[in-house]
Design goal:
translocase; plastid; NAD(P)H_OxRDtase_bac/plastid; NAD; single chain; 5 helices; 2 domains
């Protein structure tokens, strides 16, 4: 049977983690100074006038390189729990991890052949 009192810690954590950012935004909105001037409305507040247009186009290759890095970096984090409990879980989990690594290698080879790892 589903018992709600078993989840009291979860609900307390959820409420506290929701209230703290809301309070932080509310308090900073009250305490922040409201002085607006021409320096505050400029593009940069460093005191140097901006040169050129602020809209620059970046090549998509940089975003693809970063995306491939993040994907493979996050996916390797999933290997850590398998490595820490390898002796307890047995051979079936080793086969699953091996298939997971093979899928990662296939994705890496695909990205490499498509040129997503080329920086220039």
């Amino acid at each position: 049977m589903f018992l709600l009192y078993e989840y009291e810690i979860f609900w307390a954590f959820l409420i506290i983690s929701s209230v703290i950012p809301i309070l932080a935004f509310f308090i900073s909105g009250i305490l922040a100074p409201l002085r607006k001037g021409p320096e505050k409305l400029s593009s940069y507040e460093s005191g140097i006038e901006p040169m050129g247009n602020a809209w620059l186009q970046f090549r998509i290759r940089y975003y693809m390189f970063a995306l491939v890095f993040v994907v493979f970096d996050v996916e390797t984090v999933f290997l850590y729990p398998w490595a820490m409990s390898f002796d307890v879980l047995g051979v079936s989990v080793f086969i699953e991890a091996f298939i997971f690594v093979l899928i990662l290698i296939v994705g890496l080879v695909y990205a490499w052949r498509k040129g997503a790892l080329e920086w220039s």
